[in-house]
Design a protein that fits this description.
single chain; mainly alpha
């Protein structure tokens, strides 16, 4: 994969390398999902993030995570010197408003092209699966499912709307068989198997996030360019979402195996 290799990001990459060491790894998550209380989880996270004791008493867990998100955005915005890259990563409305292709054509970057293709393809597959699953419960016909899918389908991926829409009238196995010729087969096969067995999207959602993360891993160790900065920002955002999931799952006394299943991490 070709990266931008812009030497102007040399200092930013040095800052990224220092911050990467504090990203939470799978082994740390395994310890964090099994505390005796929400307070213990918060204490563990603060210790891992090296938050000073003076801050410990004044922050709720939600505020702690909100502050981490704000700090992550500020860090990315400060060191990303390409305005189009900065807007593309921070502004979700670009995808929702279907103007993504304009940005990607302007930047002409292989890493970003591939990342957003994967993101959009997986989002469309997820939308298809959720609509189909709901339709099974509510006994909706294929025409109704296609209309709902049309409203949420995202452009600029590699999968056409018709390709997935034609599978609404088919059994779940047809989606798995179709995916065999795509990069998404492992995610779809494992996700649908878990859905049919456990009546839950937990594994599907986790593997969707992890497939995107596997691409980000390729960008982490380029010498120059904005890609490691983008990768760090997105890894950190996933970390914050993971911790929020764990906190509320513990609060609601969710079974341990389900909490672990929900945590997306390839580090």
């Amino acid at each position: 994969m070709k990266f931008s290799e812009n030497p102007a990001y040399g200092f930013a990459i040095g800052r990224v390398r220092a911050k990467e060491t504090y990203l939470i790894k799978r082994t740390e998550y395994d310890r964090m999902v099994n505390p005796t209380s929400e307070f213990e989880l918060m204490s563990n996270v603060k210790n891992y993030w090296h938050i000073e004791s003076a801050e410990r008493e004044s922050q709720s867990f939600d505020n702690l995570l909100n502050a981490a998100h704000f700090e992550n955005e500020q860090f990315f915005a400060k060191y990303c010197i390409d305005a189009s890259v900065r807007q593309l990563i921070l502004d979700d409305s670009i995808i929702k408003n279907q103007v993504l292709n304009e940005y990607l054509q302007q930047l002409d970057n292989e890493f970003l092209n591939r990342y957003f293709q994967i993101l959009i393809d997986l989002e469309n597959i997820r939308s298809f699966a959720r609509i189909k699953n709901l339709a099974v419960k509510e006994k909706q016909d294929a025409t109704t499912q296609k209309k709902l899918f049309n409203k949420v389908f995202l452009l600029n991926g590699t999968i056409t709307e018709t390709t997935l829409a034609n599978l609404f009238s088919e059994p779940w196995e047809a989606l798995v068989q179709w995916s065999a010729n795509t990069p998404y087969h492992q995610t779809v096969e494992a996700g649908i198997s878990y859905l049919l067995d456990q009546k839950s999207f937990l594994r599907f959602e986790r593997m969707i996030q992890e497939q995107k993360q596997h691409l980000l891993l390729k960008a982490r160790y380029t010498t120059f360019g904005f890609e490691p900065l983008v990768a760090y920002y997105l890894f950190k955002e996933t970390e914050i979402r993971n911790l929020r999931k764990i906190y509320y799952a513990i609060s609601e006394k969710t079974p341990l195996d389900q909490i672990k299943e929900s945590v997306a991490c390839v580090l």
